[in-house]
Design goal:
heterodimer; A: mainly beta; seven-stranded mixed sheet; 56% strand; B: mainly beta; six-stranded mixed sheet; five-stranded antiparallel sheet
Chain lengths: 115, 113
């Protein structure tokens, strides 16, 4: 257990479904991130939140909608996804102080399959 | 394009040998580098980090070397064990107070018994 918990671990959804991914951290961090990990590609940054405010949206399609109600929780709402959106979605957190010592702490990810 | 890359996508070693995983980066303004290990079914896990004012840092069985002249980072694993089999990523942070990390593609290390 890294201190960052993601649920569900696996998700299969149809292209017309709406689902949400959840991330929770108990590390007292102030920054949270969503990354997409596809086979044979580098980790792709999707969204960054600092102190609950979104500070970066890396040109992510609107079918992905993040929500950060507080510094400990991060959601990724999914709707009308495409098969190419199938991937491992990783949540991470960091101190948010700008020093970044220790980098990110990652959760185990949600393996998403869009059918 | 990505600014952090790895020289080899896969590396296979015998148990007990030393492993060296390499990474090239292109942003000379990066001031902090991290190696992560990702085992199957898990998220990336921090292994070791190094600041740009250092050229070497050692941990338990792992050493990171930084050569700023040629913008090269390497991870050395001593006496590689089957539990070291995983994908290894390097990541860099650009100078300036942001915590944003840029990741490379990863090298898959396989340890043969």
């Amino acid at each position: 257990e890294t201190g960052v918990t993601q649920t569900p671990r696996h998700l299969v959804m149809g292209m017309t479904n709406k689902k949400s991914l959840k991330c929770e951290q108990h590390l007292g961090h102030n920054a949270m991130y969503w990354y997409k990990q596809s086979a044979k590609k580098p980790l792709e940054l999707m969204f960054v939140y600092n102190f609950k405010e979104q500070t970066e949206n890396n040109s992510v399609p609107s079918r992905f909608s993040p929500e950060c109600p507080n510094s400990s929780h991060l959601f990724l709402h999914l709707h009308t996804l495409q098969p190419e959106d199938s991937a491992l979605y990783l949540c991470a957190s960091s101190q948010g102080s700008g020093t970044g010592e220790g980098g990110y702490t990652f959760g185990s990810g949600t393996r998403l399959t869009v059918v | 394009g990505e600014s952090v890359g790895l020289h080899l996508p896969t590396l296979s070693v015998q148990e007990g040998d030393n492993s060296i995983i390499n990474c090239a980066y292109s942003n000379s303004a990066s001031d902090y580098f991290i190696w992560y290990k990702q085992e199957s079914g898990k998220g990336p896990q921090f292994i070791i980090d190094i600041r740009s004012n250092m050229d070497k840092r050692q941990g338990q069985r792992v050493t990171v070397l930084l050569n700023k002249t040629v913008k090269h980072l390497s991870l050395q694993i001593a006496a590689t064990q089957p539990g070291d089999s995983a994908v290894y990523f390097c990541a860099e942070r650009a100078q300036g107070g942001s915590e944003k990390l840029v990741f490379g593609k990863g090298t898959k290390l396989t340890v043969n018994p």
